[in-house]
Amino acid sequence: MESARLPAKVFCGVDWAEGHHDIALVDADGKQLARQRIGDDASGIAQLVTMLTEHGDTEESPIPVAIETSRGLLVSCLRATGRPVFAINPLAVARYRDRHSVARKKSDAVDATALANILRTDMAMHRPLPQDSELAQAIAVLARAQQDAVWDRNQAQNKLRSQLREFYPAILDAFANHKHGLASHEARTILAAAPTPAQAAQLTRRQLRALLKRAGRLRGIDAEADRLHEVFHREYLHQLPLVEEALGQQTTALLRQLESACANAENLEASCTEAFQQHPDAEIIVSFPGLGSLTGARVLAEIGDDRSRFTTAQGLKAYAGSAPVTRASGKSHFVMHRKVMNKRLAAVGYLWAFSSLRNSPGARAHYDRRREAGDRHVSAQRHLFNRFVGMLFHCLQHEEPYAESRAFPNRQPTKTTPTAA
Length: 421
Fold this sequence. Notes:
disordered C terminus, globular, alpha/beta, Nucleotidyltransferase, domain 5, 3 domains
């Protein structure tokens, strides 16, 4: 793990809480210099800055600060001042706390001192928060929010599907082969008009055509209306009439949740891609096969635009979770999948690798060779993602776009290209 060694004689620990924060300052010998509780407001930040200044904090030699979170107004204000801020995992803080007290006592002041001592003894083992640009930080907010909205949409869709299986199999059959399933505009429009199978059976072809047009369908409206009419008039099992009506009301409530989740995902996608296209790294990132504006924004959101954050491609690969982990002890030697990673970056990595198989002959050939060597689909994709991460690091460092001829030199796809399972 890379980390800049910052010359410092004083170290600061901040135990974050919702309404207040405990501050502790220690010197290079571990002696506590100051301790104070501040409020979570502007005056509290001013008190913290004053404490740091009184103990030698300058622009040329800022005092490093350790805190258990990487988010919030306090962290944002500290980063804006240019001070190195280290976000320490709470589990790591608990382990360090045991080094200083066998009684296992705990308090906010003790945790603040433990955080300061972490920087005093092991600052080189921790990475400070990156100095990303304001635009990159804004893209990170939008990209993560959009990804969360997609996950919420999937959860709402699964809840609705589970509900419909109880009493409405016709709507499931009607959109079983649709690309977006129940989350499609057509399914949501028809379900809103007919939340029960009895109401769906009463829809005429003319009404179905009107609903499809309202949902935005432009082609094959008559054929689709005929198909839906035939599906809704098939023979299915039914709940009792009053029970079916009650389930229909519950379905309407779940549908409103799905509508909201779909709208959030669509609106955030538009805002995210618009912000991403304004970033100078966007052109390089989308030059890679398999990356578009949205997936590119997710990649940029997690790696940022601070070039000093990762000094080697291997560090970025480990952060993305694509680099394997080797465990060796005596005669045993194991190479395993890395589990400690940025899960958001790893998630977009599988989409990136899978999409590149259609757009890059070199990526397709690389994937096929890994499959022929015995890798399963996920392992072959992860290996391809690992290769792309190394290429991305090089291209960003040298400010040059992706080039297929340099990425996969003298590599041609195999004659047989099995379909990704």
